[in-house]
């Protein structure tokens, strides 16, 4: 299930991509399939080892084009182990709401992104996320949990302050908002509640089968109920005189 829309955020074969806070690796895997040279980085060593295993399995199965590469590594988003201007593309999906120093993370992403490079940032959308917080303290008051809810203009302002130029936004995963409301209402760790189990089956069916009816429904509902807010931005080239 991808949050970044690669029709709005195109990759070229050979692009060097950083998936920052990659988690289980969903965006890193898609970039690898598209022929990119991918680095998936996360602070969670267990998840990184699993991502590395999936990269190896994809290579063995021939899922990535010739020239594509993939590396999984542990790292700190506030102290990235890469030189300046190392990447053509940076993706950070559902991460910034967890990190106290979000301005520091943006600064590091800008540092490692090449001039002219592109960045995709996704966070939980304000409205649906606010409902989750209202229904359940346990949803966010956990170690490593969500510490803030971004309004759209707040996130866009942070991105601009970091020196990036936003060029597009959208919302995603409208069908997932009711699922998380149910989880919060019945208990975030309670997977046995009938409404939660029934809705989870619907989501799994939708992800696996991709029926036209639910695709059209989600597309129509995303502007209203989309669980995620997505921003695409570029890093400007330095003016000729500033580069001297």
TrEMBL record:
Pfam assignment, any one: Methyltransf_11
GO biological process terms, semicolon-separated: methylation
Keyword vocabulary terms for this entry: Methyltransferase, Transferase
Transmembrane segments: none
InterPro entries from the UniProt entry: Erg6_SMT_methyltransf (IPR050447), Methyltransf_11 (IPR013216), SAM-dependent_MTases_sf (IPR029063)
GO molecular function, one term: S-adenosylmethionine-dependent methyltransferase activity
Range of residues in the leader sequence: none
Annotated Gene3D superfamilies: Vaccinia Virus protein VP39 (3.40.50.150)
Domain Methyltransferase type: residue ranges: 18-120
Descriptive protein name: Methyltransferase
């Amino acid at each position: 299930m991808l949050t970044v829309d690669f029709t709005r955020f195109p990759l070229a074969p050979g692009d060097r991509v950083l998936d920052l806070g990659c988690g289980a690796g969903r965006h890193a895997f898609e970039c690898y399939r598209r022929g990119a040279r991918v680095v998936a980085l996360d602070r969670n060593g267990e998840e990184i080892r699993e991502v590395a295993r999936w990269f190896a399995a994809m290579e063995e199965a021939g899922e990535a084009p010739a020239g594509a590469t993939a590396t999984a590594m542990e790292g700190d988003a506030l102290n990235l182990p890469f030189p300046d201007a190392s990447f053509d593309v940076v993706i950070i999906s559902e991460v910034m709401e967890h990190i106290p120093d979000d301005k520091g993370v943006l600064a590091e992403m800008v540092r490692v992104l090449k001039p002219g490079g592109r960045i995709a940032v996704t966070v939980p959308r304000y409205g649906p996320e606010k409902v989750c917080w209202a229904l359940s303290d346990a949803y966010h008051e956990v170690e490593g949990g969500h510490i803030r809810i971004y309004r759209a203009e707040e996130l866009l302002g942070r991105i601009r302050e970091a020196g990036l130029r936003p060029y597009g936004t959208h919302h995603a995963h409208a069908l997932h908002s009711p699922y998380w409301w149910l989880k919060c209402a019945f208990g975030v760790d309670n997977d046995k509640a009938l409404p939660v189990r029934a809705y989870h089956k619907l989501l799994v069916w939708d992800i696996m089968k991709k029926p036209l009816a639910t695709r059209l429904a989600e597309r129509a509902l995303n502007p209203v109920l989309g669980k995620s807010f997505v921003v695409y931005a570029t890093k400007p080239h330095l003016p000729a005189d500033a580069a001297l």
